[in-house]
User: Fold this.
Amino acid sequence: MQRIERNIRGVLFSDVKGYSGLPEPTLREYSTEIINLLYDRVIRGNDDHLIYKNTWGDATMLISSEPHRIARIALNLRDFYRNQTWQELNINLDLSVRIALHVGMVSKNPNPLNPSDVFGTDLTIAARIEPLTPPNEIYTTEQFEALVDGHDPTLRFDPVGEVYLAKEASKRLLFQLRRSHESPNITIMPYIHVIPLPKDPTYKHISDRLKDCKEGEEVKFIAITGKASMLSGGSLKIGENLLDRAFPNALSRGVRFRGIVLDPYSEEAKFRSSVETPDKPLDRRLLQIDASDVRNELLSLYRREKITEDKLRNLELRYTKIGIAFGLWLFNDVAFMEPIHLAGPGRPHMCGFCELRITKNIPESDEPKFFSEYEILKKHFEVLWANSEEGPWPSSK
Assistant:
């Protein structure tokens, strides 16, 4: 059996913004003349440390045995796109490149189909970072920065912040790479990370974030009835402890909650419930039953579990008569949003298949041009909160 070679390598992944807008004749020119020009100006002369080179369409992957040298290649690649006058090459679009760097374990596995084949989970990290990178900039992982910083005095790494990557549950600290004589340029980035999540009826991603909440931390939420949020899925099963559920457990630890739910007797609620469960009296429709469960059972459930009155005051609940288009969980670093559309019997809601995780990963700024999707959701909550009525919790005893 052939032995597989495994080593720590530097990985570069890049993608060209604007490539998809190129017409077919220009695509051919890009794949020949421009790639040849790029090779001559950026790649040539690096064969001694580049163990893997590949392109497909506008994407490029390079793997190096010397990570500090692939950092310099990344800067030269960035400058190639920054300084190119594309009209002189008969391209009527301004192309830009997004570059990501990572360092990790790479396995080399020559085979009859691909003599230079490589594999390893670390290869995908750079590809997941690349979509977050601003055009004509370079993002690196913390591992890359730790290995390369200080090795080459011409390189500088500026922290960008912690972000979630697609298909990863935990956050990664990212850096922006520049030359030492260049000024930091990270505050111009009004980017935010939005990840579609497969629908999970257990809300595990929200539960996991609730478990990390500290005493005094504030969490905001918007829901139709709040049954899934506050009752964490409904009434207790025999032998089940309420404090085993994420929301009441967080409340018992002193996490503060502000929640907005739809007034079950507003015109919006009546209309929504008539679509979801038609041919039933108003008080027997699903939405109104769920709202009644929250109103009537919540306080007794929490009292039964001996959650103290001072902790109960950490839950403020308001009713809104305005239609709710999405459910929202707003933490101090990330938001989870699920669209809510109307659906009749046997037809799932839109929220039955999709949720979004929106990460707050840009510098704080008072200027509107730096507003992100996260900040817009935060403002949306505050406006809705200010125009909602106080609910029966916790004053009704």
